[in-house]
Inverse folding.
């Protein structure tokens, strides 16, 4: 994440202090606290009525309960994942960023000491906790950090990183055109800010204005995309 970038949509933001005193961000759109108009004409956002399960995991054993299950990425565009080879996370080179709504098939949960250079968003602690997964038709196993161990304390952020139910079903009313764009990780006119964040990632910088009526700069896997929202919908998309 670029220094100075802001994470928007008034969602849950977990701030954790990484090595060297830097502050890392894991932003999740669930439990959003988006301001709504007051008075009898107050509009209800149907997204806020969607029930999002949480695991409340607090140990490596709890994370291992996900073995054999699927999760979908909510905090897209923030976490690097790495090849998992011979029962070890290979930190030599990132295999990519987890992208919004991607399905991960969980194979295991493991602990491993992580090099400082890889621990910007989630602290190194004494060890990090990783979920091992496959995705799509790729048989290669990968690992992504979801928490850390520091002394006797365990901090897990899985509930801030993943959906435990398919978001395509949770938000099916968004419609096939929006979901086709999200799955292609592109923005299209008519998207809401929430839909755009799942499509492009949650690293973004908003300009002046209220959510849904402002300009937002998104970091789409290192490529800037600027979107103008009017009346809650994207009306202008630049840089895509």
């Amino acid at each position: 994440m670029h220094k100075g970038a802001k994470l928007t949509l008034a969602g849950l933001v977990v701030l954790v202090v990484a090595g060297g005193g830097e502050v890392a961000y894991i932003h999740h759109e669930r439990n959003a606290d988006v301001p709504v108009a007051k008075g009898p004409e107050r509009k209800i956002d149907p997204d806020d009525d969607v029930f999002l399960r949480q695991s409340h995991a607090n140990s490596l054993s709890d994370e291992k309960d996900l073995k054999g299950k699927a999760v979908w990425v909510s905090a897209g565009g923030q976490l690097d994942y790495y090849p998992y080879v011979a029962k070890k996370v290979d930190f030599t080179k990132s295999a990519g960023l987890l992208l919004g709504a991607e399905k991960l098939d969980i194979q295991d949960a493991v602990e491993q000491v992580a090099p400082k250079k890889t621990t910007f968003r989630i602290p190194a602690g004494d060890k990090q906790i990783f979920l091992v997964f496959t995705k799509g038709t790729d048989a290669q196993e990968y690992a992504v950090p979801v928490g850390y161990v520091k002394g006797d304390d365990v901090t897990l952020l899985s509930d801030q990183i993943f959906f435990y139910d398919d978001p395509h079903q949770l938000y099916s009313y968004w419609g096939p055109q929006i979901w086709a764009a999200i799955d292609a990780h592109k923005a299209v006119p008519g998207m809401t800010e929430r839909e755009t964040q799942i499509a492009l990632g949650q690293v973004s910088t908003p300009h002046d204005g209220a959510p849904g009526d402002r300009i937002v700069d998104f970091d789409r896997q290192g490529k800037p995309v600027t979107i103008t929202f009017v009346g809650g919908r994207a009306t202008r998309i630049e840089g895509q």
